[in-house]
Design a protein that fits this description.
about 375 residues; 5-stranded mixed sheet; about 70% helix; 2 domains; 11 helices; alpha+beta
């Protein structure tokens, strides 16, 4: 029997063509995979840069605000906040340097180092009691010039991100697939990338939102006691004052001070002093209503605004707080109990006097309570401070 050689060669030819096509297709797919992988890395780096750009801008604003508020107010919590956030900014800038060729970031890094040196120097002067010299540094032309260099670097980084983004888009346009198979594969891959971008962007936005809420909370809260800080109290109190004036309602101010707090710090240490501040803050919160506004006014001094309250009612509340604080059982480092007492001054609104005047009257009443031997409550009854 004769065998047609062509009938034998055809299957081999088809098989060979199939193998060659498979190799070509596999090579194409590998190439496309490499291209997609490169694009994925580029997009991932772009997203990282966008996130770092926002984070760097945000942290820079936080540090500048913290350093300036520290020298303006003398409140140590702003310095503590500066110390907490400065390493985060440095880390973010270093990360951006690794993802770029240095365009914009190196200039920002240099300016940031100079700014940090100036801010640290100002905070050291503040701790030495030289607040005026500290203010001169943070509000100087040299400081402003470095801030401008910093902003210029951030603009360059932003342009670099936009340029990279445009380059990536052009590169993807040049790599369109030439047939249906590769077109379908491209659609699938691009859909996956787009899905990743959407998911990742949502994650970034959520992280930024959480960071903003955290900063907002820190800006409104005393870090040690958890109470409202002075600035936030003033904002809330002004709203309540406007409401009281509009509807002709009353409110009272309590000015409270821990007696001989310096002696507690000197005899038992600042850690016990902090414990006392936290314990007193807890008693204040538990003794007041939800509608009442309570804040750490500064140091060992606290302030509270009681809506819909007259001076007699406020004095009763203040005495209740005084009694509860007097019963606190705080153990010192030597095992002995630390005695805690407080004095309070009370003043109520009347005749549409300003909020500042009501606070001043409560402070005068507190001064009267201190002069009366401490551990007592005094109600403002005129400039004579009669009890």
């Amino acid at each position: 029997m004769l065998i047609n050689k062509s009938s034998v060669r055809f299957p081999y030819a088809v098989a060979s063509i199939g193998i060659i096509l498979s190799i070509l297709l596999s090579g194409r797919l590998v190439y496309l995979h490499m291209v997609e992988h490169h694009e994925f890395q580029s997009i991932n780096n772009e997203l990282k840069l966008i996130t770092l750009h926002r984070k760097i801008m945000h942290l820079d604003e936080v540090l500048t605000m913290s350093a300036r508020l520290a020298v303006l107010t003398g409140d140590s919590k702003w310095e503590d906040r500066y110390v907490d956030y400065e390493p985060k900014l440095d880390t973010a800038i270093k990360s951006a340097l690794q993802l770029t060729n240095g365009s914009g970031v190196s200039e920002t890094d240099l300016a940031n180092q100079k700014l940090v040196n100036m801010e640290v120097k100002a905070l050291k002067l503040l701790n030495q009691g030289k607040s005026n010299e500290a203010k001169l540094i943070l509000f100087s032309k040299e400081y402003s010039a470095e801030k401008e260099k910093y902003a210029s670097g951030m603009k360059k980084l932003e342009k670099n991100i936009e340029a990279n983004s445009s380059a990536d888009i052009n590169a993807r346009d040049r790599d369109h697939f030439k047939d249906i198979v590769f077109g379908v594969a491209a659609i699938v891959l691009l859909s996956l990338v787009w899905l990743f971008i959407v998911i990742y962007t949502k994650k970034v936005l959520k992280q930024n939102s959480e960071l903003f809420k955290e900063v907002e909370l820190l800006a409104a809260t005393d870090s040690l006691t958890g109470l409202m800080n002075r600035r936030s109290f003033i904002e809330r109190a002004e709203k309540e004052y406007s409401r009281a004036i509009r509807y002709e309602r009353s409110f009272a101010i309590l000015m409270i001070d821990i007696d001989k707090f310096k002696n507690i710090n000197d005899q038992h240490g600042h850690d016990i002093g902090d414990t006392v501040l936290k314990a007193v803050s807890k008693q204040l919160s538990s003794s007041l209503r939800q509608v009442d506004i309570v804040s750490r006014w500064g140091g060992e001094e606290f302030i509270a605004l009681l809506p819909e309250t007259w001076s007699e009612q406020a004095a009763t509340v203040a005495d209740k707080i005084r009694t509860s604080v007097g019963s606190l059982m705080i153990e010192g480092n030597d095992g002995k109990l630390v005695s805690v007492s407080l004095s309070a001054g009370v003043a109520a609104s009347s005749d549409k006097i300003s909020l500042e005047e009501v606070i001043r009257r409560a402070d005068n009443a507190l001064y009267s309570a201190k002069n009366a031997g401490r551990n007592t409550v005094r109600v403002y009854e005129g400039e004579s401070h009669t009890a």
